[in-house]
């Protein structure tokens, strides 16, 4: 069994997940083993599973559900098209590691709207080759804010384009909106628009980090990642 997969849906078209129920990932045991929570503890070589993960699906809708205490990401989509995630409640303690609310990887035509997200990591994150993404009416916090990246890890080529984030409230988050790329990565992040975002008690409201390095020793100084057509409005 793949430890990365708990509730895993592959290759399904036209699926709707809805209702007022709660999915509890009971992630406490996994968090206790994380070296991110206990710095003196060696990192666990077996990554925790994602709570609800869709891969290579089309026309997926997830709405009206509570996902809580995920061992890792609460709701994630990989290589999916035409996705709607709305009216969700995604919650975990502020110190729970890697518990992103909604995570996108290589997915397009995605609508993330009207959600309450309170976790220990990014409220919404998107990585390699995502496009045509709309994030709207999100209440985020605590957590790490809304992130594009990290992009270009291990010198890979990643592209993220046509992303709109608007009408969001971020409260007590580490970051507001963030774009992060690895040194040596290739590709681009372009046509990104952030507007009508209210931030309260946010440590780093806007971050563009082209020297992202998630390791204890410094990463080599290499060519950076291209960021273009970035717009921010009140």
TrEMBL record:
It is found in: Secreted, Cell wall. It comes from the Eukaryota. Pfam families: Glyco_hydro_28. Its main location: secreted. GO terms for molecular function: polygalacturonase activity. Keywords: Cell wall, Cell wall biogenesis/degradation, Glycosidase, Hydrolase, Secreted. GO terms for biological process: carbohydrate metabolic process; cell wall organization. PANTHER family: PTHR31375. This is Polygalacturonase.
């Amino acid at each position: 069994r793949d430890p990365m997969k708990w509730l895993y849906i592959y290759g399904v078209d036209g699926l709707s997940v809805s209702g007022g129920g709660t999915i509890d990932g009971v992630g406490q045991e996994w968090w206790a083993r994380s070296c991110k929570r206990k710095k003196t503890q060696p990192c666990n070589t077996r990554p925790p599973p994602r709570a609800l993960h869709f891969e290579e699906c089309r026309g997926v809708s997830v709405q009206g559900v509570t996902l809580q205490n995920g061992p890792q990401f609460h709701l994630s989509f990989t290589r999916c098209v035409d996705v709607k995630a709305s009216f969700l409640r995604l919650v975990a303690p502020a110190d729970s590691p890697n518990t992103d609310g909604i995570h996108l990887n290589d997915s397009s035509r995605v609508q993330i709207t009207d959600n309450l997200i309170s976790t220990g990591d990014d409220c919404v994150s998107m990585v390699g080759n995502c496009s045509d993404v709309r994030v709207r009416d999100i209440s985020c916090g605590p957590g790490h804010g809304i992130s594009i990246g990290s992009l270009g890890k291990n010198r890979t080529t990643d592209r993220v384009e046509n992303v709109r984030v608007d009408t969001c409230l971020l409260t007590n988050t580490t970051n507001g909106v963030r774009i992060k790329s690895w040194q040596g990565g290739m590709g681009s992040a372009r046509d990104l628009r952030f507007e009508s975002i209210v931030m309260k008690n946010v440590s780093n409201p806007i971050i563009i980090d082209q020297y992202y390095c998630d390791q204890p020793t410094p990463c080599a100084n290499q060519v950076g990642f291209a960021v273009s057509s970035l717009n921010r409005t009140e």
